[in-house]
Amino acid sequence: MNFSIPKCIAVSQRIAILPMLSILIALQSCKHEKKIYTSECNGELVYTHVTFTQLIDSIQNYDHQLIEVQGTYKEGDAQSALVNDSLFTDHSNGHALWVNFSQDCPLYLKGTRQGLFEYNDGKFTQISNKSVIIRGKIDMRHKGHLGSYRGEIDRVSYIEM
Fold first, then answer.
1. pTM of structure
2. Cα–Cα distance, 23 to 20 (Å, whole number)
3. pLDDT given for residue 66 in this prediction
4. Confidence category of residue 2, pLDDT binned at 50, 70, 90
């Protein structure tokens, strides 16, 4: 016996699939919208993009340089640090960077006057444990709380999360 699906059923199945595909495409486009906070500090200057591992391994080459790097931001009691995004690397302070947010370089959500550290919509912006791209100036002399970090990112002028 040869069984075949009648054409009317095949067409109706195709029609039913189209709305599902449209919904899936719409949900895919609803991914987390990036938030970019910028400061007028160092605004038009050129930043060198560097991987986190490269920066930690050869930080002396980037001392007093403007860099852009990606990592996970961690905050807590006496902690303001950028650590490697990789789960397979050392996340201790000796392999992390102290992040020095300065009042001289206030960060605002792009296109608004909403500050990164301002109370807004009933809460503060959650940045801890988020992957971020950060731009700032590397300083090897300052090593954060108790001098336990590899170096410091100072004059932060850009955060993307």
1. 0.73
2. 5
3. 96
4. low
